[in-house]
Amino acid sequence: MSSTSIPWDLGTPAPPFAKDRWELYHVDEDFSQVNDLAAKNPAKLKELQALFSGGGKKYNVLPLDDRRSERLNPYLRAGRT
């Protein structure tokens, strides 16, 4: 079973962010994102993860919310904001 999240498949729960795997692509050379460079460039991945986290804290968007349709339906999000 894949942990891939398909945005338009609202019947299948999205995998939690904690189980996501970071990917790294050089889109100038690989615009179709075929070659994941994360394993070959762990230092660059760590640098970009730090930038991501810093931006999330700066703009007050953390923690991220991994719910999909539940956020749009007030009956499903009871008690959650």
Q: Level of helix content?
A: 10-25%
- The first-to-last residue Cα distance is 30 Å
The total strand number stands at 0
Please write the string of helix (H) and strand (E) elements. Answer: H
The secondary-structure class comes to mainly alpha
The outline comes out as extended
Total of helices: 1
Round the mean pLDDT to the nearest integer and report it: 83
Write the layout of secondary structure elements.
Elements: H1 42-58
How would you describe what is shown here?
With 81 residues, this protein is mainly α. The chain has one helix and no strands. The radius of gyration is 16 Å and the shape is extended. The mean pLDDT is 83.
